[in-house]
Design a protein that fits this description.
With 326 residues, the protein is of the alpha/beta class. The protein has 13 helices and twelve strands. It is 40% helix and 14% strand.
């Protein structure tokens, strides 16, 4: 039976890819960081770390195809993912489906662009799945702000996005891995309509029965907020780069790639919110106290000079973007 390795298998998308591969009747191997994890959605788990090349041969043994997801904190592609791609080719991997990002060809500062270029040069057949923003960001990256502050805090301005559900992304990725005919293909998949973060806040607020407000922060205010919650600086700067085209209003395009591939419409934002409403429940006093204690343990965020802010915005920061982009 064909064996498909799924990196990031415990994440929002990876778990859905595993589930869908198994549903289609193929063999999945779940690559995970947790050493004590036995399986993911019924697929056997194997310990894997992009920074531990000695472990790669065992992980890649017998693998025909691979779902590749770049860890969010990993910005230096040349030092991490490129050696892994070389090892995958040497191990006999014939096809890689990469979870990229819609519009990556127009935003070359972000690491996804460098990964795509590395795959094109790898000698391995590839498929690029370029989704829009995940609906599930609202129950993961935005969850604490929604629960504890009744706010969404991202620097997207009034820009619109055609959010897509990770269940739909997983379905597309699994299809490209289990079927023939997707080598060299690029699929830009979105939801059926675009909405801005004011509208997203309204959908979630209507679902949970309390007002949720989008604060529309500047990029620098977003950085300060994220760092004050304990987020890593490299991660925050990558996120600033990703939200930049959204703020410019150039990221709200809607495509029909999903419905064309899958023969059905994508999941709506209203259906998503109804399915995930429990993630935004009102926190208990104990949860609020624990959250406050966690924030209190984060070191104060130093103010940046104008020069530092401009350097971070245009690629002179410490994210590795200078080695990635145009």
């Amino acid at each position: 039976m064909k064996t498909i390795l799924v990196t990031g298998a415990t994440g929002n998308v990876g778990r859905e890819v595993v589930r869908e591969i198994l549903r289609l009747g193929y063999g999945a191997r779940a690559a995970v960081l947790e050493r004590d994890l036995v399986d993911v959605e019924g697929a056997p788990a194997v310990h894997f770390n992009f920074r531990s090349p000695a472990e790669w041969p065992a992980v890649l043994a017998g693998v025909d195809s691979l779902f590749l997801m770049r860890p969010p904190e990993m910005a230096d592609v040349d030092a991490t993912l490129v050696p892994f791609l070389q090892a995958a080719r040497a191990a006999g991997v014939r096809h890689i489906s990469f979870l990229s990002l819609i519009g990556v060809d127009k935003n070359k500062r972000i690491p996804h662009y460098a990964v795509e270029q590395a795959l094109r040069a790898s000698g391995i057949d590839f498929t690029f799945v370029r989704p829009g923003f995940f609906m599930q960001n609202a129950n993961s990256a935005y969850r604490d702000d929604i629960r504890f502050r009744d706010q969404i805090i991202v620097p997207a301005g009034r820009g619109k996005l055609a959010f897509i559900d990770v269940r739909d992304i997983g379905a597309v990725a699994a299809k490209t891995l289990c079927e023939q005919g997707h080598a060299g293909a690029v699929y830009s998949i979105t939801g059926a309509r675009a909405l801005n973060f004011f509208e997203l806040a309204e959908v979630i607020g209507t679902t949970v029965g309390r007002p949720i407000r989008y604060t529309n922060p500047s990029s620098e205010a977003f950085r300060t907020h994220q760092l004050s919650t304990g987020a890593a600086a490299d991660y925050v700067e990558v996120m600033q780069g990703i939200y930049f085209p959204v703020r410019l209003g150039v990221a709200g395009g809607v495509t029909d790639d999903f419905s064309r591939l899958m023969g059905r419409p994508p999941i709506t934002i209203e259906q998503y919110a109804a399915d995930y409403a429990a993630h935004w429940s009102v926190p208990s006093p104990e949860e609020r106290a624990a959250y406050a204690a966690r924030l209190a343990a984060v070191p104060p965020v130093a103010r940046r000079s104008l020069r530092q802010r401009l350097a971070g915005r245009f690629g002179g920061g410490n994210t590795g973007m200078g080695r990635i982009g145009a």
